[in-house]
Design brief:
single chain, about 375 residues, alpha/beta, Rossmann fold, 7-stranded parallel sheet, 6-stranded parallel sheet, 16 helices, elongated
């Protein structure tokens, strides 16, 4: 099996980590795997150099130049499967497959990691209609796609995975010393892009309640994004400058995360929440919202605590309860690690991906006349 993977992001988020895990995992099983990535992106930097690492920069949804470059790559390499990992990659692949004659035409797979509705414009309907199979990171995403008009037989749930050996091998940093925090202060951590659907405003609002009850608590938020200035204003308004730290993007985020006492995720919407898999693999207790696919990862009161989205009071109450009960945090952490080992290992994810490819290749290729369009 020869698969070519396409990701257009310059940043490093959970999706890019999953791309790298998939590519490396397939190679480890002896399958040829090529990767198209942004030439200035973090994914390309972290991927091994070699003939099957192809730098192409997408200029956006209608990046015809990048699609033309990709079409030439497809003609030269002739992969069995081309696998797009983000929305712009879907457009690039759909356009590339339409430029000139590709014989054989590679099967088109898309990883869907966000619980956002498909845009209802003509181009989105067209590009998603070209997809042979959607690999949905959660049942919540699959349900949304089918509701948006994707035929059920073209969407399957494939939960993402975590590399347990890698997580175990990453050295732990002293987060207090590294970020100049008071020695011994309890650390509530979060790792996420500073964008609206991650719900940081509710986490910061919850922090104001938590520090009134546990005054030495510190909140550490790792990530960058469009809301940074807004969140800093909120922190100032709530007089939390000493208690909430926006620490920016850190390539050593996992090492810092190992020093958290508790992981808190405040998402309003969430495809799955792979950072929760990292936290659970560490053996860290988590508090998270019931958004999107999160309940498929965190079993309430078994491997973590779930609260309603947009509910800062409930979030604060769960954090305070667990900060005050080290034994309960430890119990949740042990159970979380076992759940990840049993159901969310990278080996399981890679094998499920390969099985999906094999089933797809064995299925006759649909033509434009018998392929149902995505509803608009």
């Amino acid at each position: 099996m020869f698969s070519l993977h396409v990701d257009t992001a310059r940043s490093w988020r959970g999706g890019q980590n999953q791309v790298l895990l998939t590519v490396l995992g397939l190679r480890a099983q002896g399958h040829r795997t090529a990767l198209v990535a942004h030439p200035d992106g973090e994914l390309r930097r972290r991927a091994a150099e070699g003939p099957d690492l192809i730098p192409i920069a997408s200029s956006g949804e209608m990046g015809f130049r990048a699609a033309w470059q990709l079409s030439r790559v497809l003609k030269m390499l002739r992969p069995t499967v081309v696998h797009a990992h983000d929305a712009h990659a879907v457009a690039m692949v759909a356009l590339a497959r339409s430029f000139g004659r590709l014989d054989p035409l590679p099967r088109f797979v898309v990883s869907r990691r966000v619980d956002f509705h498909i845009r209802r414009n003509a181009f989105s309907r067209w590009k998603y209609a070209q997809v042979d199979l959607f690999l949905c990171a959660s049942n919540a995403i699959r349900t949304m796609l089918v509701g948006d008009g994707v035929p059920a037989e073209r969407a399957m749930t494939l939960h993402e995975g975590v590399d347990l050996e890698h997580v175990a091998a990453v050295p732990r940093l002293d987060v207090h010393a590294e970020l100049w925090l008071p020695s011994g202060a309890p650390i509530v951590g979060n790792v996420a892009a500073l964008v609206p659907h991650k719900g940081h405003r509710y986490l910061i609002e919850a922090a104001a309640t938590v520090v009134r009850q546990v005054p030495d608590t510190r909140f550490v938020i790792l990530g960058t994004g469009e809301l940074e200035a807004t969140l800093r204003t909120q922190i100032t308004h709530l007089h939390l400058e000493r208690h909430v730290l926006l620490a920016g993007f850190r390539p050593d985020a996992l090492s810092l995360q190992k020093g958290f006492d508790l992981f808190a995720m405040s998402s309003v919407t969430e495809g799955l929440g792979t950072v929760l898999l990292d936290a659970m693999a560490i053996g860290q207790a988590v508090v998270a919202t019931r958004a999107g696919g999160i309940p498929e990862v965190v079993a309430h009161e078994q491997t973590g605590v779930l609260v309603p989205p947009r509910d800062a009071d409930a979030l604060a109450a769960a954090i305070v309860r667990l900060l005050g009960d080290a034994d309960r945090r430890a119990q949740l952490g042990v159970a979380g690690r076992e759940r990840v080992r049993a159901s969310f290992s990278v080996e399981r994810m890679v094998q499920a991906t390969l099985d999906a490819y094999d089933r797809l290749v064995d299925t006759p290729l649909a033509t434009d006349t018998d392929r149902p369009a995505v509803a608009g």
